[in-house]
Amino acid sequence: MRKKIIKDKVSIITPMYNAEKFIGKTIDSVLAQTYENWELLIMNDMSKDNSCEVVKRHSKMDARIRLINASKNVGVVKGRNKLIDIADGEFIAFLDADDYWHEDKLEKQIKFMKEKDAAISCTDYTRVTENEKSINEIKVKSEITYTDLLKNNYMGCLTVMYDVSKVGKRYFKEREKNEDYVLWLEIIKEVKKVYGLQENLAFYRVLDNSRSSNKFAAAKVRWDIYRKEEGLSVLKSAYYFVIYAIIALLKTK
């Protein structure tokens, strides 16, 4: 039986593993939202620290926060997909357990999506250190096409929101890295464009041990996506890869 989707509600998808140090800030940024019609679904992937205790303290005070415990270690992709299954919001948004939002993120983004009649959107965001020191700001284009996205992944997962009533529930492919990028490419081919809200509404925490910290591995993954996931020719793959590499180098300066 299909779960009934609740109009205007936002289901926030948060996988969590050993996030005791950051999860409180993440939850607080959701609680502070000026838009109140949301649920925060947190998948505890068998954390060994006190992450669950932090979540439970918050959930006792606000029933919109739900902690779901995995019976075995499932990883980020399966964790997100399980939460998407559970979600009953018209809108699906993503917020990892070490990231956080501006207080008006949901309100502004939903208003923006309704004005644009958008199936999917993203926003500008700031990359910060573990101690919340600003590194740089990631800007998005007002309209992002499939070709744009092949050149540069503008879409920070913590800023993406899609409308279930327009595209259905969309799930991540089981991949070691860049599963979000593959999903955005899949959706954009269907809806033709992603709308970018050019306002900074989120903070992405760059961790030393993050899955995206190894630049060489990230480059290999990007090439595999061009060739295997998107089926691009060697020539087209090389073209987009050079652009991707140049943009990546500029980001480090």
Give a verbal description of the structure.
This protein has 253 residues and is of the alpha/beta class. The protein folds into two domains: 6-209, Spore Coat Polysaccharide Biosynthesis Protein SpsA, Chain A; 214-253. 40% of the residues lie in helices and 25% in strands. The chain has nine helices and ten strands. Helix 2 links the parallel strand 2 and strand 3. Helix 8 packs antiparallel against helix 9 (234-251). The longest helix is centred in the last third of the chain and has 18 residues, at 234-251. The termini are far apart.
Q: In the CATH hierarchy, what is the architecture of the largest domain at level 2?
A: Alpha-Beta Complex
Largest sheet: 10 strands, mixed
Identify the CATH class of the largest domain.
Answer: Alpha Beta
How many domains? The number is 2
Q: CATH H-level name of the largest domain... which superfamily?
A: Spore Coat Polysaccharide Biosynthesis Protein SpsA, Chain A
How many distinct beta strands? 10
Low-confidence runs (pLDDT<50, min 5 residues)? none
- Gross morphology is globular
CATH topology description of the largest domain: Spore Coat Polysaccharide Biosynthesis Protein SpsA, Chain A
The helix fraction, in percent, is: 25-40%
Through-space gap between termini: 51 Å
Rg over C-alpha atoms, rounded to the nearest angstrom: 18 Å
Looking at the chains present, what oligomeric state does this protein adopt? single chain
Structural category is alpha/beta
Number of helices: 9
Strand and helix order: EHEHEHEEHEEEHEHHEHH
Note the beta-strand portion.
Answer: 15-25%
Mean pLDDT: 94
